[in-house]
Amino acid sequence: MPTNYTDDQSAYVEMHGGLAPTFDDTVRLGAGGTLYWEETWYPVAGIGDVVFADAAGALNVQKTDAGVQVGFYPVGYIHGNLTLTVAGAAVSTQPINLRPAQPFQQTIALPPDLPDRGMVTVQILDNEGRPVFQFQQEMALR
User: pTM to 2 decimals?
Assistant: First the structure.
């Protein structure tokens, strides 16, 4: 049971990395052989679930009764604008100054005239207008 691994019986997650696809698999290194791989690990605390991650950060985006909850945990400093587009309409654009110790977490209200389902896009541009992060997914809006 996962709660057996924590002092306060909270949830437990163990990340897996390396060349083997699972904990049970092994990768053998022969005599004189070399192996190489890259991994990027970073914290995601404070944004809820993670639905997407890339080299810029990790994203949570969920429909709630109050609107769309957006959580973004950056891996570095990001100064620019975050735009939430829903069903083809930009519903929020706001300036952001993020750093790993200060992720973005906000519930953004939606207009009442949305379809039942639609494309939701989260885009982050830096102060020069260059794309830093983008995620797009169709989701239930009602």
Answer: 0.78
